[in-house]
Amino acid sequence: MTAVTDTTTSPQRADSPEREVAVRLRGVGRSFGAGPRSVVALDGVDLAVRAGEFVCLLGASGCGKSTLLNLVAGLDEPTAGSVDVSTGRPAVMFQEPGLMPWLSARRNVELPLRVAGLGRAARRAVAEELLDLVRLGGQGSRRPHQLSGGMRQRVALARALACTRTGATGLPLLLMDEPFGALDAITRDILQAELLRVWRATGAAVVFVTHDVREAVRLAERVVLLSSRPGRVVREWTLRSSGGDGGAALGPTGVAEAEVTEEITTALREVISSHGRH
C-alpha cells in the first residue's frame, strides 16, 4: 500500500541514471579536540544526495546532524574521509533568520549578490524575483522588525536562494538546519508547504536537518537516520519516487504516512535507547 522502501546505508543509491550526484560523503569523520578528551561527532558516514533530491537528516540532539551540514557547506573540514559537492555554491539556512535589521527585506536578499559583485539593477531584479517566489512580492521595502517570524524566514529563504545565483554553475543546493524549529505550529505548517513549492520550482537539492519525524516524512523524498554520537548512517527510507518534481505521495490516504511515521519514530527511539545503554 505504501511507496516506502527501507534501505541499508548505500551511497550508490544516488547513482541512478536520471540524476547526477550533487553531494557525496565517503567515510566522513569529524572529531573535536585531541587525546582522551576528544569528542567524535561523526564516524564513517557514507551518503550521497542526487541533484534535485530532498533529503532529511534525522536524529537525536547531539548526533552530528549540524556538524555534517557544516561539512557539506564548507564551513568545516572532516578529520577523515571526503566531502564532494558538484552543484553550485551551497546556501545555508539556520533556525534564526539572521537578517540585517537595518536593511530592508530586498536589500537583505541582495547581500550575497552585492558581495559577488553584481550591479545594482541586476541585484534588484534577482531580489524581486526571489521575493515573489517566496510570496513576499511588494514587501521588499519593509525591515525585519515589520515582518512576522514566518515572513522573516521567507526572506532568509530568498536570501539563501540568492546565494546560488552568484555565478556558480549547476543546480542550487540548499542546506537547512532546523529552519522552522522556532516557529509556532501553524506558521511551521504553512512554511513546510511553501518550502516544497519553492523546491519544486527551483530544482534545488535540499539537505534538511530535523529531529521532528513528522516534518521529515512530510518533506523528504528520502529520510536518513543518524545514530547517537558518534553519528553514523544507520537506516534510510525512500518515501517518494525520484522524479525531481516532488515525487508521488506516500499513499492514497494518510494511513501510509502514519505508518511510516510510526516506523521511523520507533527506529529513532531504538537509536536513543541503544545510546543510553552504552
In short:
By secondary structure, the chain is an alpha/beta fold. The chain is built from seven helices and ten strands. It has helices at 65-73, 105-115, 120-133, 149-163, 185-202, 213-219, 255-277, and strands at 5-7, 21-32, 39-50, 54-58, 80-85, 90-93, 173-177, 205-210, 222-226, 233-238.
Write the layout of secondary structure elements.
Blueprint lengths: L4 E3 L13 E12 L6 E12 L3 E5 L6 H9 L6 E6 L4 E4 L11 H11 L4 H14 L15 H15 L9 E5 L7 H18 L2 E6 L2 H7 L2 E5 L6 E6 L16 H23 L1
Helix pairs in contact: 2-3, 2-4, 3-4, 6-7
Measured between the Cα atoms of the first and last residue, the distance is 37 Å
Strand order across the largest sheet: 1-10-9-4-8-7-6
CATH superfamily of the largest domain: P-loop containing nucleotide triphosphate hydrolases
Order of helices and strands: EEEEHEEHHHEHEHEEH
Report the total helices: 7
Write down the domain tally: 2
CATH architecture classification of the largest domain: 3-Layer(aba) Sandwich
Major beta-sheet overview: 7 strands, mixed
Keywords: ATP-binding, Nucleotide-binding, Transport
Pfam family, one: ABC_tran
Organism: Actinoalloteichus caeruleus DSM 43889
Domain ABC transporter: 23-253
